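Co-fold these.
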Amino acid sequence: EAGVAQSPRYKIIEKRQSVAFWCNPISGHATLYWYQQILGQGPKLLIQFQNNGVVDDSQLPKDRFSAERLKGVDSTLKIQPAKLEDSAVYLCASSLGLRGGAKNIQYFGAGTRLSVL
Amino acid sequence: AQKVTQAQTEISVVEKEDVTLDCVYETRDTTYYLFWYKQPPSGELVFLIRRNSFDEQNEISGRYSWNFQKSTSSFNFTITASQVVDSAVYFCALSNEDDKIIFGKGTRLHILP
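Predicted complex below.
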């Protein structure tokens, strides 16, 4: 079974530029998550989708970050304009999405490492 | 509020030694889930184990074992006879029934040959 796919693996941009990350979750997984992982810290949830609807985006800096999952499968996370403090690894994860129970295990992609200069 | 504390920032041991990674959590929920993930240098978080709050049985999987104690709010992870391939950052995490995971800051483990 294919895992969570993310691209690109690395991105270097200058501040105030825009950038987009793509995620393809595990087939059949209804729930998709985007995390930000700053160096030396654990991942922090940015946004959670259930199918194509947003479940939680309370920690997404909406003035510059946006995300969509139009057909309930792939997802895109965008930053516009980027700031220096956005330098981090952006991780995508997916789960079957059944509330609680044994199906809430999240599987992660390899992430996109963003450097903002 | 939920919180996960991994007090050990970095640990180094010589290969074949046993090593225990500590995890202490805080939650007001009666139903919750605890996880351990491994993050090798490649960057992907690899799922190791999930435990729910009603199951305090310890678990062993090969060289890995987990000790869940609700009385001390701890979920510690032991690697027996460590190997160089075990070198990674290990994250303990906590979620409620909303499936939102809170991660600890991680413990970087170095296994020296």
